Amino acid sequence: MRSKIIQDDALLQIYVSHYLKLAHNHVDINYLKQAKVRIFYQTVPEDMLAGFCINSSVPFRTFLPISDEQLRKLRINNNINNDQLHEITCIWIDRNIRLNFWGGYRYYFTLLWDVLRLKSGTLIIGTHEKKLKDMYSPGFPQVIFYDNIFVATKTVFADFWIMKGSKYTFLTSLVSAAVSRILGRVKKWYRQQHSQ
User: Which of 91, 154, 109 is nearest to 128 (CA)?
Assistant: First the structure.
């Protein structure tokens, strides 16, 4: 599986379509143009299998669903500085890649590599799905916002969490998850060998 950063309008539009289809959420192509958008594919970039965005400049997509007053309080209470902020957004993975042992590793460790190369600062991520909130929690352990609000990109009212982390928490969470997954595979293999 290959990966690359994309900037071409045609590829970004394909990315928008995949994100809408798999995440049931809309993203504006102008936002993608300001962010770092990485895709994964087998042969040609047009046949995307997964992707993610990292954005380090205003406007931050994570803050779009909340009001100006909520954002003001969030910034004050959590010492949020635009100049030292990075958001991970628009994450999507084709089901076949999620289920593929090495494909999943390639995706998440490429994401980790891109995060570790960012300048020092705070990492944030937002989600309206509780299962995703729970999945992201080890890497983003501090919930800095929660409310049931109107999410314009989905045109529905939904629970919405914004979580905060660091390069260190992100690194340790992915390493821990990787080790756990490898041990699970080893145990499965061991049981299969000794059940014959």
Answer: 154
Amino acid at 154: K
Please give the model's pTM, rounded to 2 decimal places.
0.86
Dist CA 179 CA 177 (whole Å): 6
**100 DSSP 8-state letter:** -
Low-confidence spans in the chain with pLDDT less than 70: 99, 101, 178-186, 189-190, 196
Give the full edge-to-edge strand order of the sheet including 122-127. Answer: 2-6, 36-41, 48-55, 85-93, 122-127, 156-165, 142-151
Q: What is the pLDDT of residues 2-37, one digit of tens each?
A: 999 999 999 999 999 999 998 888 899 999 999 999
Beta bridge partners of 40: 3, 50
